[in-house]
Amino acid sequence: MSSIEKKRIALFPGTFDPFTIGHQSLVERGLALVDEIVISIGINDKKRTHFSLERRLEAIRDLYKDNPRVRVMAYDQLTVDFAREVGAGFILRGIRTVNDFEYEKSIADVNRKLTGIETFILFTEPEHTHISSSIVRELLRYGRDVSQFIPEGLKL
After folding, report:
1. Catalytic residue at 133?
2. Which PANTHER family does the record cross-reference, listed alphabetically (predicted)?
């Protein structure tokens, strides 16, 4: 890439409580489309999380410590404002269901109207559509093994 070409950066926002193999798949597939992905953990005081913000940041950073194309950050502002702050021209989102599509489309339309930042959506791979952070949290709450639902090497 010449110094004149702008780096194509995508923001991948979410709570990631915890980060799942579905999220990991989206990051890997997204890296085929952009130069860099900023996994961005939104701070939402209204949401009760299982893992602390610090623990989520540390676990995901550790997972991607050898990949210079992935950064992991936290933010407490509008997603599009944070995207601009980190130089992202895109927002990466994944959808599992039709309901996800309706929600994501509405937000993408508003974000584009406000800032011009485009959202690209990747469909969850069929083998991951049943996996969600909320299901993994529920399994953890009851002491079940969640290793098949989280990335290998993710330290919860």
Report:
1. yes
2. PHOSPHOPANTETHEINE ADENYLYLTRANSFERASE
Binding residues for ATP: 15-16, 23, 94-96, 104, 128-134
Q: Is 23 annotated in the active site?
A: yes
What is the 3 state secondary structure string of the chain? CCCCCCCCEEEEEECCCCCCHHHHHHHHHHCCCCCEEEEEEECCCCCCCCCCHHHHHHHHHHHCCCCCCEEEEEECCCHHHHHHHCCCCEEEEEECCHHHHHHHHHHHHHHHHHHCCEEEEEECCHHHCCCCHHHHHHHHHCCCCCCCCCCCCCCC
Asked whether the whole model's pTM tops 0.90, one would answer yes
Dump pLDDT digits (tens) for 66-121: 999 999 999 999 999 999 999 999 999 999 988 889 999 999 999 999 999 999 99
